[in-house]
Amino acid sequence: MLVTSNGASHTDHKTDSVDHKQLLPFVIGKLESEIQNLELGATTLLTQIEIIWIKKGRGNLIADFSTVAFDGNIIFCLAPGLQRRIVTDTELHGYYLSLSTDFLRLSEGQTHSSILSAQHVRVSRFVVLEPDKDLAYEMTDVISKMIKEYSNYYLLRSEILKGLVKVFAIYLTRNTKPNLSAAVTGRDSEMVNRFMTLVSMHFATKKKVSEYADELCVTPNYLNQMVKRATGFPASYHIQQQIVLEAKRQAASSGLRMKEIADALGFQDYAHFSKFFKTYSGISFSNFKSALTT
To answer: Are residues 153 and 193 both part of a single domain?
Structure first.
């Protein structure tokens, strides 16, 4: 009898490939065999953490409105909620990993300092890494073991996969700059995570730091200090950027006029919204819309 990660028992020795992938809250494999998950050329809204390691191939990856050109030896770490598109005219080779935040949390244990920790995923939503030769060799070994465990039903399969994911996350973190691997821990870390979650849910109706501080039962000054210590930016910055990002998304994906987008984002005065957008994005709304068509 086999026991899956969700506790269900199975007496069959084999399952079809679709059920096999659904048993664990992540997908892993060589990029060339998982290429359908990338939906090349299409814009995809990510619902899980996604790691794309391109060893061979060239093109552009667009995450929301940031574009990175690649030509092999590059790793993209993408957070849930991002809109991702890959444009390429070559075959891509490498590795693909998609995992839920819940599975990652289980693999982390008490570790909060990796680049894939809940805190870093919420703050550094789009990370680009170029692994050096030695680390790339070690990471290839770890990811090959993950693929082997994922493809078979060995004893304690889920536990080993959690451990390998944790090791892989540590190797990813070693490729980052020192300031990216510094994390706030304990209660403060949890507060920052809760703040970022609340902002993603309520940015259209709550635009003041004090409103989020009340929700978290702390003072605005304390919340600002914790958020800035963890991210390098005050709480107000994250609220402003979330609003700007959503405005850009709506402008790019719908035929709505500026006034309609302003209404959807909780601005009663669209002139105020226009000023807000230019101040915190560095470009006027009309110029941004024009750039989308060029």
So the answer is: no
Q: Which of 207, 199, 209 is nearest to 262 (CA)?
A: 207
Helix and strand numbers, DSSP H then E, in the chain: 12, 11
Q: Residue 173 CB: number of other CB atoms within 10 A?
A: 20
pLDDT at 14 over 50: no
Token digits of residue 109: 């244990």
Distance CA 282, CA 1 (A): 60
- Report the pLDDT value the prediction gives residue 124, as an integer from 0 to 100: 63
CATH assignment at residue 205: 1.10.10.60
SS3 74: strand
- How far is residue 238's CA from residue 254's CA, in Å, rounded to a whole number? 24
Contact 49, 125 (CB under 8 A): no
Cα–Cα distance measured from residue 8 to residue 22, given in angstroms and rounded to the nearest whole number = 12
What residues have CB less than 8 Å from 127, skipping those under 6 apart? 76, 77, 115, 120, 176, 180
Helical ranges in 90-208 per DSSP H: 101-108, 118-123, 133-150, 157-174, 186-202
CB 207 within 8 A of CB 272: no
Q: What is the pTM assigned to this prediction?
A: 0.70
Rounded distance between C-alpha atoms, residue 191 and residue 224, angstroms: 11
Domain span holding position 143: 2-180
